[in-house]
Amino acid sequence: MSVPLSPEEVARVAALAHLDLTDDEVVLFGRQLADILGYVAEIQAVDTSGVLPTAHVLDRVPLDRADEPRPTLPREEALANAPEAAQASGLFKVPRVIG
Q: Which has more confidence, 95 or 69?
């Protein structure tokens, strides 16, 4: 069973995340956060003392291929389907995303 969070605790977490919550959202998210924290507490209670630490779930080592030079896509072919390619300079034209 999860321990309920107070509206003040939910409001503090929301403020840290820069979220403006309605009163209904505070109640809803408070219940959801309490459920999540309860589940985390259950997971932390599992005895893992006999489990070997793992760095990856796959047993293949190494996971990466060798870094070897290989032929690349020709520039003209790479730019062929670009909506606004600068063919002369061989560059992609993209919309400005930072003011």
A: 69
Smallest CA-to-CA distance from 32 within 8, 11, 10 is with 10
CATH of the domain at 33: 1.10.20
What average pLDDT does the chain have? Answer: 87
Which residue reads 């560059």 in tokens?
91
- Quick check: is 22 in a domain? yes
**Helix 23-44 / helix 7-16 crossing angle, nearest 10 deg:** 90
What range defines the domain where residue 28 resides?
A: 7-44
Q: Using alpha carbons, select from 52, 16, 14, 18 the residue that is nearest to residue 33.
A: 14
- Tokens representing 25 are 């959202």
Which two structure tokens, joined as six digits, stand for 78? 């790479």
Residue 81, pLDDT > 70, answer: yes
